[in-house]
Amino acid sequence: EYMGTNTFVKDLNKQNPLGTGGFLAVAFGELMKDLHYGEDSFVSPWDLKRIVGKFALMFSCYQQHDSQEFLSFLLDGIHEDLNRISKKPFVEVLESSDRPDDEVSKESWANHLKRNQSIIVDSMH
């Protein structure tokens, strides 16, 4: 529902240099809207394919590609387009220094969240 009902628009981060200026999220949202609420018996993802090809040249043609690479690009692109962190702070890489793994992992996750907050992070991490 988040994508198909345009709820995502409030989270668009068009200034994120790691994103697509919101183009990928909007194209994906339009596809979701067509799939769930459209009146046609078929949907062609042409706009999404065009946007993906514009920002990832390896997908711009009609050759066969690795589905994992496509899904990784799609999810990362949507995440960056919807990242609620507009100014990502510098975060130092943590060293374990023989500390317990659970302690290091909690610190690492907290550092990750300082730079990454989106529906993708909320849903999949």
Task: Describe the protein in words.
- With 125 residues, this protein is mostly helical.
- It has five helices and no strands.
- It has helices at 23-37, 46-55, 67-81, 101-115, 119-124.
- Helix 1 packs across helix 3 (67-81).
- The longest helix has 15 residues, at 23-37.
- The protein is elongated and about 60 Å long.
- It starts with 22 loop residues before the first helix and ends with a helix.
- The mean pLDDT is 93.
Number of helical stretches of at least 4 residues: 5
Residue share in helices? 40-55%
Number of strands: 0
Low-confidence stretches: none
Sheet having the most strands: none
Average pLDDT confidence is: 93
Per-chain topology:
Blueprint: H1 23-37, H2 46-55, H3 67-81, H4 101-115, H5 119-124
Helix pairs in contact: 1-2, 1-3
Descriptive labels:
elongated; single chain; 125 residues; 5 helices
Summed up, what is this model?
By secondary structure, the chain is mainly alpha-helical. 49% of the residues lie in helices and 0% in strands.
